[in-house]
Amino acid sequence: MRSDYLNSNSSVGNFDLKIKKVTADITLTDADSGSIIMVNPTATTEVDLPALSSISSGWNCKIVLTEDTDGADAGMGQKVNIDFGSGNDVVGLIGDAVDGGVGQHAVDNDDYIACTANASAGDMFDIFTDGARWYVHGLSKDASETPFASAAG
Known about the structure:
It is built from no helices and 12 strands. By secondary structure, the chain is an all-beta fold.
């Protein structure tokens, strides 16, 4: 008879998160799917997502801006550009915590999320693909500091 709950004989596997810390430009690969990418930039940093043709539907990651210390509002100090690849469709939005803030919405020809040096540690972006386009759901202290853009910031 099948049990309705987990017990000592149940197997759940290893559910540790895959954490990757980044301080400089990086191109993500198929192997990075499912990872949390912690970006602590030492200079303007670009995170290139893999080419859609090289990955399968379901590829995903979370990108989190960090200073590896307690965060400060508008305290990143360096720019971070997340590159979806030229000409790829991007669907998504970035909400923010600013009172009455309208957030950001991806439009045609947006190839980047261009985080300014005034972005905040803890700003984050969940990104996945259905194999044909990228989808993004982000949360930022101030979305005007983490806009979708047609070029790197």
